[in-house]
Specification:
single chain; about 375 residues; mainly beta; five-stranded antiparallel β-sheet; globular
């Protein structure tokens, strides 16, 4: 199953009184809870990372609320609801105190889309992209800047052809990449990357490139739009591609990189573009790599990998770059583990247990 790239700050209740002096601006953290069809809302202390649940939280959402994204304006939150009775996207307004209010009716991806599983948005907040795993296509909506309403763009939904596993929009908003798996003779599963150029939300296919690995899952793009990274869970490798000015992909020399650990499923590049972090689900750890600024090639840093709780499945970096958050999904005991970050090195801080496994978490600052 697709693992989302999440943004989260959690802290133990035992440190709730440890609030440093400094900024007093509130940050808000939102978490989708699919099993309960809810969205939880928290105030995050900007100095300590301590969370306080907002009155009235968690708020009801659509059936199986799976993925979310916050609008750059901080006014709106969108949630994908893939439940059989839904197939739609919820719009919430966000108050100055972190309270969520849903604006109805929800926006359906039907009849041509089904099982919306992942949302991404361009940096300007003009377009919302919805990955529909039940119909193998992507719905694209333009966003009303004043009210947040969604309107399908011409030609939406856009066909992928294969069942998508994950998608990533380039930081510039100019290119979209989707990974898929293909079962071949002998039971082996190869992977493909389909690229699209983006113009006013309209997707134009650039072609399909082999992921050069089995069962591609995680995707990451560096801040300059020059390198794409793919975590191949089935072959325990990381593929590295350069991105040209037209969005085309060329595998770099030495790719794929053998991951010495098992089951890489998620990855993220920090905002400086210097470090790549990889969640290795099969070996319960996180790999940390420095990135060559010219070739994009990863080199494991000293002491990597760093042990995590069981089944690390998604990663998120605090925008400050000081903390890395790992979503762990062992049966019965899901949790979020926090690490301090220093030049790519990780130092475990705490683990926060959650009753319902969050599938997507976003932060508003």
């Amino acid at each position: 199953m697709l693992q989302k790239a999440l943004i989260l700050v959690f802290a133990l209740a035992s440190i709730a009184g440890c609030i440093a002096c400094g900024s007093t601006t509130s940050h808000y953290v939102f978490a989708t809870l699919p099993a309960a069809s809810q969205v939880a809302s928290y105030r995050e202390d900007p100095n300590s990372g301590v969370l306080t649940q907002i009155a009235g939280s968690p708020f009801p959402a659509g059936d199986g609320a799976e993925s979310m994204v916050v609008h750059p304006s901080g006014k709106f939150l969108y949630v994908a609801n893939p439940g059989a009775a839904e197939n739609d996207v919820s719009l919430f307004t966000i108050s100055s105190t972190g309270v969520l209010t849903e604006v109805t009716p929800r926006t359906s991806v039907a009849p041509d889309g089904s099982s919306p599983d992942l949302l991404v948005m361009d940096p300007a907040g003009k377009y919302l992209y919805v990955m529909n795993v039940g119909s193998n296509n992507i719905s694209v909506f333009s966003i009303d800047s004043s009210a947040g309403g969604l309107t399908p763009v011409s030609g939406s939904p856009f066909s992928i052809g294969l069942t998508p596993q994950n998608m990533q929009l380039a930081p510039s908003g100019n290119f979209l990449y989707v990974v898929s798996s293909i079962s071949s003779v002998g039971g082996q599963t190869s992977g493909s990357i389909e690229g699209f150029s983006v113009n006013a939300g309209v997707l134009s296919a650039l072609g399909v490139t082999s992921s050069d690995g089995a069962n591609p899952s995680g995707l990451a793009i560096n801040p300059k739009d020059t390198f794409l990274y793919v975590a191949n869970k089935g072959s325990n490798t990381i593929s590295i591609f350069s991105i040209n000015s037209s969005g085309g992909l060329t595998e770099v020399s030495g790719s794929p990189l053998n991951d010495v650990d098992q089951g890489p499923v998620a990855m993220i590049v920090d905002q400086s573009g210097k470090y790549l972090y990889v969640a290795n689900q099969g070996s319960s750890n996180v790999g940390s790599y420095s990135l060559d600024p010219t070739t994009g090639f990863p080199t494991a840093i000293a002491d990597s990998p760093f042990g995590s709780e069981g089944d690390p499945s998604f990663l998120a970096l605090d925008p400050s770059g000081k903390y890395l958050f790992v979503g762990n999904q062992p049966p019965g005991t899901p949790g979020i583990q926090a690490f301090g970050v220093s030049s790519g090195s990780l130092n475990a801080i705490f683990t926060y247990s959650v009753g319902n496994t969050p599938s997507s978490i976003a932060v508003l600052q």
